[in-house]
Give the backbone structure.
Amino acid sequence: MPKFMLLVNHDGGVFDEPMDTWAPGDIAAHFNYYEALSKELTESGEMVSFTALADPSQARIVRADGAAAPMVTDGPYAEFKEFLAGFNIFDVESEARALEIAARISAVPGPGGVPTQQPVEVRQVMVDH
C-alpha cells in the first residue's frame, strides 16, 4: 500500500485569530477532534505516525559545507508566514483515501465549531524498489 505524508502548516485557514485567543471550549473541541480522528485512524491501521512540532521560535537553521564547523542560526523568522505545525504518515489503499483523510484534518473545528479549512499538503512517500 502506498504511504502518504500529510503536512499541516500553522495557518488559521478561514480564521485570522491565533488559537491562544479562542475560547477555552473551542480550543478543547479542536484538540478533541484531532484526538478522536487519530484514534480512529490508528485503530484502522492507516496512521503510521503523527508528529506535532514545537513553535518555530525554537527552530534552528543549520548550514554546513562538510569541512568547517556548521553555522547554526535562529529561524524561521516571525515574518515567515508558512511554517510546519506537524505531519502525519498514513499507509492507505490509494491517493483518494489520503485525500479523504486530509479533508477531515482540514475540517478541524475552530471558533464556534466552524471548520478551519486549514490547507493540508498531501505528498506520496517515495519507496525504494
